[in-house]
């Protein structure tokens, strides 16, 4: 009983120690302040990064908008990791833990883990060279293996690609071996136009060329005047004419649709027929032993 009473007295003395609770209160307050200050530093740092990069217009060393977005996200991620790491060390120090001993132990453990984290190191190194060599940037449309879409974010370890159907693909940078970038150079729209064999090809080509000359003033995504290459193919019931047009990067699908629409309206205006399937029928029972031939058509 005497031992229990002694333990109880010491426990009460410890719990009702005013200095203990004052120290705990100051520690909690300090931790809260560390978290708040860290959040403020990150927010101010992000604004500073955006401000510094926005001054590129006034600088002789200008960078493209696509690379600016990539650098902004990368610098923001690096700054966030550094601030959170420093905040964690300060919180541990507030909790009266020996930070130096922890760092020394972490260094030894990190050396051991490093041998098993080769993929992580490869991802980080590859991510650095992707940014340094400007292989692709945020906002670019790329294809990596079986994945194709718009680059949402490039981090030190992973790259996020959003497909046109909405899926978000997260790829480790080390797995990116071959990249096809569709956003660096202008694209080319290719449109095939079918006309009937009865049409006057020279007249059709003339009206199409007249139309193509005015299209760039209507569609700003056209980088040049569309060009009519001429007869591309002879089909079963149609003659195919090919039109090409240089467009802004990744705008060739839109421009192709607009060219088809304008050509269809033009053909209706000039009475140019669109070809329809034809079937040739032979009558083996024709008189005098000659095969009579008839032609029918179907739309």
Automatic annotation (TrEMBL):
Pfam families: MS_channel_1st, MS_channel_2nd, MS_channel_3rd
Compartments, record wording: Cell membrane
Domain annotation Mechanosensitive ion channel transmembrane helices 2/3: ranges: 78-118
Topology in membrane: Multi-pass membrane protein
InterPro entries: LSM_dom_sf (IPR010920), MS_channel_1st (IPR049142), MS_channel_C (IPR049278), MscS_beta-dom_sf (IPR023408), MscS_channel_2nd (IPR006685), MscS_channel_C_sf (IPR011066), MscS_channel_TM-2 (IPR011014), YbiO_bact (IPR045276)
Keywords: Cell membrane, Membrane, Transmembrane, Transmembrane helix
Predominant location: membrane
Ranges where the Mechanosensitive ion channel MscS domain occurs: 119-183
Cellular component annotations (GO), alphabetically ordered: plasma membrane
TM ranges: 20-49, 70-89, 101-121
Molecular function in Gene Ontology: mechanosensitive monoatomic ion channel activity
Function: May play a role in resistance to osmotic downshock.
Family from the record: Belongs to the MscS (TC 1.A.23) family.
Name of the protein in question: Mechanosensitive ion channel
Species name: Metabacillus mangrovi
């Amino acid at each position: 009983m005497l031992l229990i009473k002694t333990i109880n007295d010491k426990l009460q003395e410890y719990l009702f120690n005013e200095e203990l609770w004052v120290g705990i209160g100051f520690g909690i307050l300090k931790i809260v302040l560390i978290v708040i200050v860290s959040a403020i530093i990150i927010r101010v740092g992000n604004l500073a990064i955006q401000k510094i990069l926005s001054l590129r217009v006034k600088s002789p060393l200008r960078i493209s908008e696509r690379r600016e977005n990539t650098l902004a996200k990368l610098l923001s991620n690096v700054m966030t990791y550094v601030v959170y790491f420093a905040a964690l060390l300060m919180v541990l120090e507030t909790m009266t833990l020996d930070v130096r001993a922890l760092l020394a132990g972490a260094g030894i453990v990190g050396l051991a883990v490093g041998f098993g984290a080769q993929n992580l190191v490869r991802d980080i190194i590859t991510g650095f060279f992707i940014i340094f060599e400007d292989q692709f940037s945020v906002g670019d449309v790329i294809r990596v293996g079986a994945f194709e879409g718009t680059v949402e974010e490039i981090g030190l370890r992973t790259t996020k690609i959003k497909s046109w159907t909405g899926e978000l693909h997260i790829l480790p940078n080390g797995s990116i071996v071959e990249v096809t970038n569709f956003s660096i150079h202008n694209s080319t729209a290719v449109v095939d136009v079918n006309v009937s064999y009865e049409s006057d090809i020279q007249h059709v080509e003339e009206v199409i060329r007249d139309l193509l000359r005015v299209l760039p003033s209507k569609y700003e995504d056209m980088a040049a005047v569309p060009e009519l290459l001429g007869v591309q193919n002879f089909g079963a019931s149609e003659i195919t004419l090919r039109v090409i047009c240089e467009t802004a990067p990744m705008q060739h699908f839109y421009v192709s649709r607009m060219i088809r629409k304008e050509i269809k309206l033009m053909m209706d205006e000039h009475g140019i027929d669109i070809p329809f399937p034809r079937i040739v029928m032979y009558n083996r029972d024709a008189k005098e032993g000659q095969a009579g031939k008839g032609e029918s058509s179907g739309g």
